[in-house]
Structures are given as C-alpha cells and as structure tokens.
Design goal:
The structure is a single chain. By secondary structure, this protein is an alpha+beta fold. It folds into two domains: 1-51, no CATH class; 60-133, Pdz3 Domain (Roll). It has four helices and seven strands, in the order αβαβαβββββα. The chain has helices at residues 25-48, 65-70, 90-93, 124-133; strands at residues 60-62, 80-82, 100-101, 107-108, 112-113, 115-116, 119-120. It is elongated and about 50 Å long.
C-alpha cells in the first residue's frame, strides 16, 4: 500500500486525497511544489503568526497575436497585459493601468508588462514566480 497523506489548510484551495494509490507523476510534482511552499512558509507562520505574500494587485493575461495586432504591436510581441488593477494595491500606487472601455464599449489596452526585476515575462505565472522569489519590502 502506498503511503497515505492527509493535509488540511495549506491555502492552496485544493483538497489532497488521503489515499494515493492512483496518483500520477504529475500529482507528485504538484505536491512537491506545495511542500516547497510549506517548507518556506511554515517556519515564518510559527515565528511571526503570519506569512506576507508579495503581490501586485493585478490579474493579467498572455499577449496573443490578436491582442498584439489590436494594440498595433508586432504579432509576436511577448508580455503580460494588465486586465485590471485592484484599488490601493502596489500596482495602483505605482500608477499601473488595466483595460478600460470607452462609451462605445471599445476596449482600450492599458499597461503591458514585458519584464520584472530584469527578467522577461510572457504570462502572469512568470510574474508570480519572480515575486515569490523576493522578500517583502525589497
């Protein structure tokens, strides 16, 4: 029988099965990511009672050739288009602008993030990865 595992309250918005007989390599990979986060966060939770995640306050999406063309950019343009900006977020305080709509419901493209901390980004997950490598306040 494979080892069993019961994890509750990891903050990953996912319930992990208690019996792992049908787990695939992808499941074990996903768990290794969760455990890596837990190993980083739990000591700070114990010490400080909380863990502050770095964040910007934006949802974003990958730039497709259609979006690039609509923004008069080359069709192979890479980056993350800012969908919206959460009020009072770090992105809002920095003046980042998301998508807007005019009176005719035409969409106006706001900011496009092409790099963060010297690293090129192509999708929102790239931004999250870079932010998670940082310490808060730096």
């Amino acid at each position: 029988m494979p080892p069993t595992l019961l994890l509750i309250g990891l903050g990953e918005n996912a319930l992990l099965p208690t019996y792992a007989a049908s787990w695939t390599i992808e499941t074990y990979f996903a768990l290794s990511i969760v455990f890596t986060k837990v190993a980083k966060e739990v000591p700070l939770l114990i010490k400080n009672g909380s863990y502050a995640h770095p964040w910007l306050g934006i949802p974003g999406g990958k730039i497709t050739p259609d979006i690039a063309n609509a923004a008069s950019l080359p069709s192979n343009y890479k980056g993350v288009i800012v969908g919206s900006v959460q009020p009072d977020s770090p992105a809002d305080k920095a003046g980042v602008e998301g998508l807007t709509h005019d009176d005719n419901s035409a969409t106006k493209i706001g900011d496009i993030i092409i790099a963060l901390d010297g690293h090129y980004v192509r999708q929102i997950d790239d931004i999250i990865t870079i932010l998670n490598r940082k310490r808060m306040g730096r």
